[in-house]
Fold these 2 entries.
Entry 1:
Amino acid sequence: MAAWFTRSSGLARCLFRRTTKMASPAIFGCGLGPLSSDPAMAAPVNGASSAGGCLRSVRHLGSAKSGERVSQVDDRCGDQVLDFPGGKVMFVPEMKFLPASPSERINCYRVLDYNGQTISGSSFPEVGKEVAVKIYSDMITLQVMDTIFYEAQRQGRISFYLTSNGEEAINVASAAALTMDDIVFPQYREPGVLLWRGFTLQEFANQCFGNKLDYGKGRQMPIHYGSNRLNYYTVSSPIATQIPHAVGAAYSLKMDGKKACTITYFGDGGTSEGDFHAALNFAAVLEVPVIFFCRNNGWAISTPTTEQFRSDGAVVRGQAYGIDSIRIDGNDALAVYSAVHAAREMAIQECKPIFIEALTYRAGHHSTSDDSTKYRSTDEIEHWRTARDPVSRFRKWVERNGWWSDAAEEEHRGNTRKELLQAIQVAERAEKPPLSELFTDVYDQVPSNLYEQEKLLRETIKKHPAEYPSDVPV
Amino acid sequence: MLGIARRKVGLGVFSATILEQALQRALTAGSVLPKKYSTTAKEQMTVREALNTALDEEMSADPKVFLMGEEVGEYQGAYKISKGLLEKYGPDRVLDTPITEAGFAGIGVGAAYYGLRPVVEFMTFNFSMQAIDHLINSAAKSNYMSAGQISVPIVFRGPNGAAAGVGAQHSQCFAAWYAHVPGLKVLTPYSAEDARGLLKAAIRDPDPVVFLENELLYGESFPVSAEVFDSSFCLPIGKAKIEREGKHVTITAYSKMVGYALQAAEILSKEGISAEVINLRSIRPLDRDAINASVRKTNRLVTVEEGFPQHGVGAEICMSVIEESFEYLDAPVERIAGADVPMPYAANLERMAVPQVDDIVRAAKRACYRSVPMAAAA
């Protein structure tokens, strides 16, 4: 009897302590602490912790304004601990379901406000003039590239194109925070990463025109860039397949002991694919240095995020798989740079995955095959294109530092435009890949049946030269 | 090679005990490998031993080779193919994966992109359906799509085809599915020699290879010559083997059906029909030269496979012979395949859904005009 009384009073004390300390909704089984104000803390969610199994804490990186401490459950609650596979958990007699949507969404890290001024109290690494100017000018180059290639498709000169309007900060600033040793597994809306690494306008044009100088030998649709030299894996159309690839490659880096990480980009829609979930789970279990970068731009062709998922965006998914995660303002170049910089450090030093959700907006159509005015208002698009443009926002910050001017802007845009038009002309006139490239690379060595087919084809061409197109080299 | 090797072995209490026990066993047993055969005269080898030693030797020779799949580590492999490998090579090179074929196939491809040589095990190829996008769109096509910049030296292996009483979702043969795709190589070993030589060749090959084993063959023992035991033993990919020479009819088969075909040949020989049995070994590339040379000698052909008939391997072989050796055929090609139904469970129905030795014998007789052709039957 006495023992029972002690136990239940101990339980009552635990419950009282927890309910008074916590501000966020009660979580069944354990106390979930509110956000910590310490941005350097990043402990993974762990079901089996050391402090008598009673502590389960969750902390986020970020400039959360909350100053409340994480709640701790007393050791006297040791009686109320259950020991199951997976570790110790506290039990509670009251039944409470975790809410589907929390009362507060996960906060978003940003450095610059809409006027391009650093927000007081924001933490970010120093960005010098050289890097800042290169980031900004590459963002402009990307904008110019997108405009001109899009027009070229409309003129029928290339068959397809996909712009990155509104995501220039994500593209370039994230690339700037990485090194050339870090391997990139893109979706398809990240040509800015390739641009930063040194892919030339001529190389972009060659791929889009599928000529003989294309590194892809004319085998892929436009925008399916790839470069071994720049550690950028060839774009592959199926959504989210690159995510487990990135994890596998990160595993290889870990086995090699290399001081580098992999980064993989995908959109809000990509987080619905099975590959996404398998990859995140694997990365957490295998403990590999990979950065998962989700470009949550609000739209997957015509599907808005409200129809894509019901979770609080993608950041909670990273957390759910046991991965340190952060939500950032994707239209803030400095926030992107800062977060990727920190993520890379953590991924490599601690050999673990990091998840970044960058909130942004797809200011252009999904691709040249899409007309987004059919499913969203032109006002909305205009608003994001002008008032929320990441390029002009960063420009204000760069100019305020005295590193840019109107003259520089005009000159850079003009030069890029001229260079690009020239590159397109050259690419358009260049020869297409020769016939021999139809049969190579299926396997490491050309198999006998393909060798025979090529021979047969060449004989046929020789016999009927009039039937063969004159502009395709043999 | 091990790099930053930290990996939590399981969760909580239970897994630690299993590992401890395994280590105890290993230490007391003195050896962590299946018995090593002396070079002088051990003559028999099971397919299981063949696969296990092949994996062991290739992992030993090349630190980039690693094994990944469900139950391959602690459990020693769902069919014990990877027995002893976790203890010998550690959790970095023998990975027990969560249950997600799509996940580990994709991760294997990613590792291969970067330069490792993964061997990905599917518990059965029926489950590879959940990962087939990665086998086709990520593995098979990458070298071509990237114009040679990305090669995928990966091996996907596991049991394929019917076992015994496992029903429709565990019994399908996928040889025709994977052999359909340019960019993949598809191998189907039969004997222990095949298993050893072809698996070694597959692991060393720079292209993605689908390695289709058979669950019922794992325990079967085969006589092997001394050279098979050598660690450099390797069989060429794309070459079939004439298991039994003959004059009157060619029988092509792969995997378990080779055994049935050999039994059928024995029965036929007593009735005066000398059958030549070809063990295909490789479905893609198919050894068309060997098949056609044999048909030009015998003038009659029976194709045998366990899988469904429509768009099957036999259909391709038949077409190859028509294209290259039409005038040599003295009779229509006979195609023996599984029944065109999802595999039933009941033993009696299952027996009728899979080719039996009698079916092969009857087909050979039809081809030799010893019995009425199928079309004329009432």
Entry 2:
Amino acid sequence: MITAPALKYSSIKRAKSKSKAIRLALIALSCLLGIVFAFPLYWLLRGAFVSHTEILARPPVFFPKEPGINNFRLGLERIQFLRQLWNSVSIVVPYVIGTVLTTSFAGYAFAKLRFPLRGMWFVLVISSMMLPSAVTLLPQFSLYTSLGLAGKPALIIPAFFCAGGNAYFVFLLRQFFMTIPVELSEAAKIDGAGHFRIYSRIMLPLIRPAMIVVALFSFINCWNEFFYTMIYLKTEADYTLPMGLYIVNGMRIPNYEQVMALALVVTAPCLVFFLIGNKYFVEGITLTGIKG
Amino acid sequence: MKVGKRTLMMSMAVTMALTALTGCTGNSDNQQGGTNKAAEGTKAPANAGDNKDTEAKDITLELLYWGDDVQKKLVEAATKKYTADTGIKINAQVLPADGTFDTFIQTRLQSGELPDISYMGEGDIQKYNEMGILADISDLLTDGSIPEKLSAITIHSPEQKVIGVGLSNQLELLFYSKSKFDEAGVAYPPTKVEEAWDWDTFVANAKQLTKDTKGKTAAEEGFNADLTENYGLGFTAGREFHHFWAANANGGGIVSPDGKEFQWDSPESAEGIQMLADLVNKDKVASPFTYTWSTGIGSAVDALSGGYAMAVSGSWDLANIKGNEDIGVGVLPKMKKAVTMNAGAPLVVYNTSKNIEEAKKFYAYMVNPENSLELLKSGAWLPNQADWYTDAALVDKWSSELPVSAKETILSYSTTKDSIVQWPAYYVPAYLKMNTEYEKSIDQVLSGSKSVKEIYDSIMPVIKSLWESGKVS
Amino acid sequence: MNPESKTSPAPVPVPKQAKGAVKEAVAGYLFAAPAIIGFLVLTLYPMLASFIYSFHKITIMSGSQIMEWIGLDNYIYIFSNPSSEFKKSITVTLVYAFVNVVLVIVFCLIIALLLNRRFIGRNMLRAVFFLPSVVPMLATTIVWQMLLQNQAKGGLVNWILLQLGIAPIEFLTDPIQIFSTLFIMSLWTCGGTIVVFIATLQDVPGELLEAIEMDGGNAWHKFLKVTYPTIKPVLFFQLIMCMMTSIQIYTQSVVLSRNGAPDRMTYFINVMIYDHSFVQVGMRGLASAEAWIVFLITLAITIVLFYFQGALKRDDSMGKRRKVRP
């Protein structure tokens, strides 16, 4: 391998120019695919700004003649926008906080603390990730109903117990905690730090990028939640934004441009968070990505 | 320093999370009560000022309904008027008329929070009656607070108690685009039942209105059906209501009006349904559809401004015409007979209501056509009382703003004997089960992969046995 | 959550070995408590309850739930009654899931390999591929419905096909094509997996790739001998996760159609179980039995996947091998 280069130099050079052409072709292909990927988002954007006559027109209207915010105004009138926005926020915020807290607790425990049956609990907790939600659907509904919690609480509580798909984050964070050298916590222990102190002062700063990823993902999961909101939210005044969108879409209103405007409104926070967190997303996934 | 800040943040986060959680619990437990109280709070003084009927104070009825945009506005207007008249607050909630509606009722049933009054799917009413949650409203009819409604949309329980009357009457109609007909040089569909196009004329006209990308119509040589750009006909959905009229039109039926004869498996019914499916797969004049709501062509009016010349849809689509001069309405084509089918979702009162008497009063208000004039004028609803179709003064009340062709068509149907068949959902207890069974396989017919006869041969024995059982569930 | 904060401020003397171990065990349980309680109350209990439900006929009469023991009737119904929708539902779900998993993994890998080279705009492209995965599925479905519907209703894709002289595809009403629609949407939203793969590809040792090139190996050799073994554990993990999400497909079906149209091809198990639980009446016991069979099937699939991959252990070693990236 080390002695070979001189011999093969010319053939490598030829191969290199050929591979350069391939490389360019591949880059072009990537860009093309990128355009294909971006297009539906553009179509969503377009749909939100075109007029009623333009939205279903043939030939299709690619650029609205007079883009205006009329669709948004009329679309938002269909739902109790502020109310539903508040509902979404009041569910998402505690949900994300709960998720970040409890999954990092569990991740820390399963990675760094030795306790009896740790292995068993870890496998059990993680295995709930593989459980189809349909299995727990009815009993959970009955449980929450009998406790009088069938409503917003039923949508938030799982976050505080690493349930509802959050086992995935436990797994992710545990893997991450495991990359932190033991020596660090040992040193702290010798200094007399308790386990919570080690967790909060040594571990947390180190796993911050992973926790941001967990926060962003749980935000998106919760914001988009739809299966359970349908079951648990029982009055229009309680609906979240995606639920409001679903209702309007389900009513098969003739003004599709307003549905698109609403869809864009519902999507917007995710896009904003993505743009803000893009760096963390990519870095965080790169960091934790090994597992997730 | 830095570490201290972090601990502080952590503890803040925990506190916030806990407060948020408990806060939410508290909130939603009290939500209903809270809003009610607030509502009462604001209303009470107003009432005192107006010196209104003191009994009505402090009552909020919850109404659950469905409807599109136009209907939503009109229902809200109607309830507002009711509140102004009586002081009783109406908390009206709108939902899509699909599984969401059932979910809503069932989840709220379990948590004991049913609305007082709601719309109900024609096919679902027997199911909920069997669950024992619907109030008997026979007394409203006997004491005259509700005048007699069209018998076609008055629903009885198996014990012959009245459990609901239709808010409106709805008919299946043929909508068309005048400009597309003019362009193709085809005469508009007739508005009189006795003049209804026979099937061959209908198909021939639909062919002339169907065009491929080269501009050739389906009636011409060299028409390429694979490249159809404009269709002669579209169905807003394949669902039973848009579908069963064909069985009756061809001399068959689903279940005879007296409920005594099962006609669904008759060769005539099969042939009638086959003729609909053939419009897509053989005649190539309609776009494919399936036996559900969402995959139809959407609003008939939008379809007509798009690539369709005719659309078969319910009369509720009249509300979307809104002065669009291009849209005309005619009678459905005939096979052996010229018939249409009617529907009309009933309103029901839940016996769990705490204000059942007030709910019944509101019920009588809602089903009185006088109080839904706006809905009637828009075309979203047709009157649910027979005299509103015959008494000229009453007819003018609701039909003055409708397109002339629509008015003529509706009046022709309602005054011609035996031209409207009743949707079996009203009088067949096992209907929901039967239709569910039907729905499982009928798409194979609509997509052209099997014939109606093949499918009927395999599913009708089961459906017939469900009908014979006579049970709801 | 509180007990830990009590223990932390207290100055802890240098502990004896045994005392430290007990302390650690207590701390371990306290930290893991939310997860353990969550597992017991929100997963294990409902699972067992669901199992018990599955032997009952559950009806709601005048507002209260009535449970009537009917033994194995629900299971017998599922497997032997011609009206049972289970077989079709599980078939379409599994077909969808398997094909979807293969498509997603292959597609994501290809995109990741394409993007695994330095060029201007690479980061932007990466963002473009990732972006759709944060769009709510509801909005995704609505947009694709607009794009794929019949051209006479304004569907863009079919309109373009028609202008090119190609017969339009009935993406939404044809019982087979509806799957194309679902796959397209699934690929459009798989950006997360792409990003993970890109991240993992950074680990592929460049020296080894060069060595193979020297030996005259082509791109395929490189992939098979070096890239694949490196990314295998991640690939496997993504595969399992993708399988689980695919089996639980729901939103797309209820937004695109109703009751699994066309021809019940989108009547996926979650749609069916939801339908039997909250739309139909008196079928909750049946829904529980269906859910349990689904659970057993997914369990079997997971076990088979793990067995074939033998990746359980490797997965663990990965965590140790990796160092935190600077």
